[in-house]
Amino acid sequence: MIKKAKKSVAVGLSVALAVTSVNIPVNSASAAAKKAKLSATKKTLTAGKSTTLTLKTNKKKAKTIKTIKAKYVKVSTSKKSVATVKKVSKKSKVTGIKVTAKKAGKATITVKVTKGTYKGTYKCKVTVKKKASATKKPTQKPPEVPTATLAVTVEPSVEPTTTPAITAEPSTTPAITATPATKVTVVNTSNITKSDDTFTVTLTLDGTYTNEQLKGAKVTLTNSAAKVTTTATFSKIDVDGKAVFTVDDTKVLTPGDTTANGDYKVSSDSEALVISGNVVASYEESLAGNKIKGYVLTDKLNNGKYDGSFKNAVAGATVSVEGGQSTTTDAKGYYELPSVAGRKIVTISKAGFVTKYLTGTKRVYVNKSHVTSQNVALEHFDVRKLTVNVKAIDKDRYF
Q: CA 135: distance to chain centroid?
């Protein structure tokens, strides 16, 4: 019995040691899972063509990520001679990664996000094929139609009979169909920018095209909120392969009071252009030096004059300029806003203070291309200074 007990204990210890020596794998895949992915991990291109990759959320219903700052995104290629890569950004946020095929071969495109929720390294293997050489199809001559010759036999005693004419059926010649013009697809756009007196908008295309293919093309720029519409005509293909359009009517973009600012939807009726999705260009009017700036402070001495003490700043006061914009003062009572040139009425208001109107001879004179300083002192609202007009009436007369 003692020997059997010892044997059982030995077997039990052996089993326990065997169990404890087994390594149980820990599923760390979910911990290492990335929150983002590239729109493609493999891509095949023809030399001379390009494609735009995007970062998407790593979910079943993936959405394009457009919130990563451009300075936190680095792109590179393993072989510049095969494929080049560059960031496509809008308002300092990355909207895509453009890959351009150069020559036949293979290259790896690397996108590295250095900071934020989507921090990580993403790669796409690109295979570039040779551009197919154009071969001329041999032209076929239409088959010759044989001419039917009628033999007429005349007998001396019998009048010749009329032999029916033989009509040769013409051979069927295939109809020649004209090759449709190449459609150029617009996938993205820059903001509307100004250089001297010229306004331009640059459109990103889905491939490589020539000036001839876009000659005469037009786009329409529409700002529904500001009720502003203008057109732009194709100018040239720039060094990056993008299409530059020049705005036709610049007056609608320069009202002088920034009312034309906002987002402009790009559309086109040109046969050569196709706008992919919702392509929007932003615009902000530059008013050069036309500005009013200054401080809004309390009337410390209650004499209606600015006393120069920053300890009495009025923060959160609303400052409005006639025919222009309005803004709110900061913690030090400072404000700054654009204005068109001329004598302007300025209104300053805040709850608990008497609203001040700079009108008449006190209107602010805004010099063209200059910054005009205007400090304002606000008086605290005091019910003791209210004036009440009382009128007595005869109730029997009115009731």
A: 40
The tokens for 325 are: 């914009």
* Alpha-carbon gap, residue 240 to 46, rounded angstroms: 18
Give counts: helices (H), strands (E), the chain.
4, 28
Q: What are phi and psi of 29, to 5 degrees?
A: -60, -40
Q: Give the sign of the dihedral formed by CA 191, CA 193, CA 198, CA 202.
A: negative
- Looking at the DSSP assignment, which residues form a beta bridge with residue 378? 298
Do residues 217 and 235 lie in contact, with contact meaning Cβ atoms separated by under 8 Å?
A: no
Rounded Cα gap, residues 246 and 350, in angstroms = 44
3-state secondary structure of 230: strand
136-169 confidence digits (pLDDT tens) = 555 666 566 555 554 545 455 545 555 555 555 5
pLDDT tens, position by position, 109-132:
999 999 988 999 999 999 999 887
In the block, residue with structure tokens 């005869």: 394
The residues of the chain scoring below 70 in pLDDT are 1-33, 134-182, 256-257, 286-289, 299-311, 323-324, 340-341, 365, 367-370, 382-399
Q: Under a CB-based contact definition with an 8 Å cutoff, are residues 323 and 393 in contact?
A: no
Q: Are the CB atoms for 109 and 97 separated by under 8 Å?
A: yes
Alpha-carbon gap, residue 320 to 304, rounded angstroms: 20
**How does pLDDT run across 363-390, given as a tens digit for each residue?**
776 766 667 778 888 887 766 555 555 6
Residue recorded with tokens 């300053």: 348
